[in-house]
């Protein structure tokens, strides 16, 4: 959609919101000074987007029922989002706390979310290092970390490292690494705990390589 179309569609929506009663196509077109077909096109799009409601009104006298439109209550969902700013606001609250407490809180939050984002193994299934690592890699890949295990898991000897070749929170990690990175480590620990895995994540090296971070794994008993 072009900038002009977007502006015109917003004008149609504003006209419906300002009207004291539902408007038809012709009425809306007269208010905006545009052709009815243009208004009809934008009204159909607004209905499809869930921003406008269309209904039929019966006229008090003879004649065909009239189709009218009203704006649905609620904010315009086509506006700008800035979730990075929200994340920075929340992280700054942690950053102002005692460093040790902030790190512990970030780790615990990560563990809670890691456990929430994976499903536990089926009943009576014995978790193995191979299955656990595969599930963890799938989660990290879904979250955008572009993970790669280094070394195939074998009984009693799981892979020692997972290379994270992308960070979905890169700018935040560069600004608040002492909080974001422990949160990532906690997320991996929480996921592995939820999976009842025989291994856990023991450490995370931020930017261990120029193009990646490295997570270290070890058997749960040894850890």
Automatic annotation (TrEMBL):
Alphabetized InterPro entries for the sequence: ArsR-like_HTH (IPR011991), Tscrpt_reg_IclR_N (IPR005471), WH-like_DNA-bd_sf (IPR036388), WH_DNA-bd_sf (IPR036390)
Region (Disordered): 53-73
Gene3D superfamilies registered for this protein in UniProt: Winged helix-like DNA-binding domain superfamily/Winged helix DNA-binding domain
Protein name: Helix-turn-helix domain-containing protein
Domain of life of the organism encoding this protein: Bacteria
Residues annotated as domain HTH iclR-type: 8-55
